[in-house]
Amino acid sequence: MTNYMLSTCGTITRMDTLELIRINLFSPMVLAFLLGIIAVLVGNDLRIPPQVYSIISIYLLLAIGLKGGFDLAKSPLGDFWGAAAVAIIVGGLIPLWSYAILRYWGGYDPPNAIALGIHYGAVSAVTLSACITFLNEVGQSFEGFMPTMYVIMELPAVAVGLTLANGQLKQNTSTTLPELLQSALTGKSFLLLGGGVIIGYVSGDTGASQVSPFFVDLFPGFLTLFLLEMGTLVGHRLSDLRHAGWFLIGFGLVMPFLHAALAIILSTYLAGLSIGGAMIMGTLAASASYITAPAVVGTNIPSANPGYYLTAALVITFPLNLTIGLPVYFEFAKWIA
User: Fold this and answer.
1) How far is residue 250's CA from residue 188's CA, in Å, rounded to a whole number?
2) Cys-Cys with 37: which of 78, 163, 235, 269 at CB 3.0–4.6 Å?
3) How many Å is the Cα radius of gyration of the chain?
4) Does a structural domain hold residue 4?
C-alpha cells in the first residue's frame, strides 16, 4: 500500500489524494460493483440468488459487529457518549435542511422533499461495510463502538422525518415513535450489528482467534460478492436518471460531501474521535439509505415518488460514496486531525 505523506506545512498534497482515489477505484470491491452495472448494460442476467444475497447480508452485518466488539474489548468506552451525541445531532439535522433545500430551492412538493430527507438522514450498511474495508486496507484503526453509530444516527433521522410528515402533510403517520424505536432495536440490522458487538466484546481475544479466519479474513471477499449484486441493482435503475432532474442529481452529488464534512468536524472537535472513527461518522452521514428508509416511506408517505428517492440514494449517492467519497472523507479526516 502506498504511503500517504504530509507536506511540510501539515496539509495533504493533491497527488496523495488522487493516488488514494485511484487505489480505491481499482479495488476488487469497486470493480465488482462496476462489473454488475456492465452486466446489466450488455443484457446479461447476472444475479446472485436471493437466498445467497440474504446470507451475505447477514454475514456482513454480523462481521462488522464482531470486529467492532473485538476492538472494543481492547479500548476504553470514554468516547462513546460523545460519538453518540454527534450521531444523534447529525442524524436529526440532515432531514430538516434536506427538506428545506429540496422544498424551497428544488421546488419539490412536501411528500417528496420529506421522503428524500429521510433517505439522506438514514444510513447505508453497505457503505459502512465498504468504509471499514477501506480503513483496514490503509491500516487505519478506529474505535470499536463505531459500528453501533449506524442505528444511533438512523433513529433520529427517521423520527424527525416522520414528525415533519405529521406536521407538513397534516396526516398521522402509521408509525409512532415507540413503534419506530421497537422496530429499530428488533430489526435485523441492529440485532446483527449490536449483537455482534456484544459477542465480540464478551469473547475478547479468545473469541477473535476462533472466528477471525472466517469473519475478518474473508470479509473483503463477501463484500465483493455483495457489491457485484449491488451493481446489478444500480444498472437496472440507471434509466431513472432521465426523470430525476438536474437539481436532484446535484443534490445527490453535493450533499454527501457537506454532510461528511460536518460529521467529521464534530466528531474530531466535540467527540475527540480518531481519524478512523471520524471517517466512519462522516461516511454514515454521507450515505443514504435504500433499504430501511424506502420501507418507512412506503408505509407512512405513500404519495412520495420512489423514482426520486430510490434513484437519489441508490443510483447517485451510493456509487459516489463507493468510488470517490471514501478516499476523500479519509483525507479530510486526516486534514482535520
Assistant:
1) 32
2) 235
3) 19
4) no
